[in-house]
Amino acid sequence: MIRRTRKPKQNPKITALRQEGHEEYDIVEDLPRLKDKTKRIHIGWLFDIKGRPALRDLCRMLDSTADSISIPGWKDLAFKLQLDPQTVGCITNRTFLGETETYYTLMTAAQDSVKTLTDVVAALEDIKRFDVLQQSWESMERLATDILENEKTSTSSPSDDVIKPSCIPVPPALVLQSENSQCNAVTVTQSDVQTLVQKVFQLVPAAITQKIIEFEDQRRCDNILVANAAPAVHDVTPEIQRNVRRMHYDCTIMLTFASDGEEFIPDIVESLRRQRNDGKRIGVLILEEHSSKMEQNPQQFIFKLFHQVNFVMPVITRGYLRSIVNISPQLDSNADDYIDTKWTRYIYTLMNNDYIKRGCLNTKVRCLVPDSLLPLTQTHIRMREPIFETWYKVSDIEQVGNRLLANIIQRKLLSVAFPRNAPESVKS
Fold first, then answer.
1. Which of 37, 127, 357, 383 has its CB 3.0 to 4.6 Å from that of 76, i.e. a possible disulfide?
2. Is the pLDDT of residue 276 over 50?
């Protein structure tokens, strides 16, 4: 027996509404209105306190998607804003601070006195990032409205000039040579260069010898410190070249911890730095041991080493989880504490930036949790973050070191076997 499906009665009102439908909002048709409203608003307003919401929306949307052929990213925006390839390369290989590429792209574009928010809107339209426009539409429109209203109250006659903020930040480590630059050019003759080179080479042997002595005596983290502190070995006299002996490490680890985690550090460092049976060594970096190198520019020093070590190991304690939230963690630390306790939040920011830059893959952060604080992994809300999901007990530090060391060796072997398609990481 064939059972027929009963057709339910349809409500004529609902049917009429369904057939009528509603057209979706087309953002392209409304773009001329936003361009007209922002044509006098200089890009520098994004870095003013009034423009922070718009800057946050732009950076969050562009930095949350990795650059690919199908999805244009910050580089496409940079070229549409007429940034030259050298400047884009400087932003790509940035070694100054922990901000994102989009942040420095907009800051660099703000150095042009005629660049406005209309140029940003047009650039996003050209690369077809309408999702970024839709997300930042309201904040940019609110910023333009606020600035234009203040301009009307301060001036009696209307003007078509670009409205600029009182202060425009300059991107660090980028020297922008343009007609609008306020820097005065300095002429250097060839004799001045020769005199400078002679003075430098007179100081090279003593400087290298001092760095080698410090490195060999203290047995610090990585040979990168010697490479950064001294010039190439082949440029030195033969006597110094024979005395240069770099310590080679098969795996390098940066520790980050708060003041209440200092008691666990000596045992962790001793276990990790112990030479393995097969002769392999693990280098451990602690900022306290390099306090003299951090005096000039601590953020740059930490930023460089962060991207050169293989792993970063936060020691999870209540003080550490509190310090990464506190805007000024140094207020909670004493004068006798390690320097590491004052930079937990900055390193935490670098860990999150690295996680996003790698396409939301955690290949760098491996947490250590003291055995007495294991309940924190289940009760504290910060431990639900992706970068804190991989953790080990401090009592298992010996086995953890062996696993991380084997992981790095396996990465190197795979990179040799598959140089073009080497995987970013192998789960440890």
1. 127
2. yes
In 3D, which of 100, 53, 57, 96 has the Cα closest to residue 78?
100
The answer to the question of residue 423 being in a domain is: no
The answer on pLDDT for 339 being more than 90 is no
With a cut of 60, say whether residue 233 has pLDDT above it: no
Report the distance separating Cα 14 and Cα 30, nearest Å. Answer: 31
pLDDT reading at 329 higher than 90: no
Structure tokens, 264:
């666990």
Domain residues for 139? 27-154
CA angle 259, 263, 268 (to 5 degrees): 115
DSSP 8-state class, residue 342: G
Stretch 158-185: mean pLDDT = 61
* pLDDT value for 284: 93
Q: In sequence order, which residues have a C-beta less than 8 Å from that of residue 407 and are 6 or more positions away?
A: 251, 425, 426, 428
Dist CA 423 CA 411 (whole Å): 8
Angle between the N-to-C axes of helices 130-154 and 117-126, in degrees from 0 to 180, rounded to the nearest 10: 170
DSSP string, 245-310: -PPP-SEEEEEE--GGGGGGHHHHHHHHHSPPTTS--EEEE-GGGGGGGGSS-HHHHHHHHHTTSS
Domain end position, chosen among 154, 177, 198: 154
**Whole-number Å distance between alpha carbons of 318 and 349:** 18
Residue 311 CA to residue 351 CA, distance in Å, equals: 10
**Structure tokens that stand for 378 in this block:** 């289940």
Structural domains counted in the chain: 3
Interacting residues of 151 by C-beta distance below 8 A, sequence separation 6+: 163
In a shared domain, residues 234 and 277: no
Please state, for a pLDDT cut of 90, what percent of the chain lies above it: 30
d(CA 294, CA 123): 40
Question: Which of 203, 225, 248 is the last residue in one of the domains?
Answer: 248
pLDDT at site 113: 86
Instruction: Tell me, yes or no, whether 371 and 391 share the same domain.
Output: yes
Tell me which residue of 328, 335, 332 sits closest to 317, measured CA to CA.
Answer: 332
Whether residue 163 is contained in a domain is answered as: no
pLDDT at residue 2 in the model: 61
**Together in a domain, 346 and 407:** yes
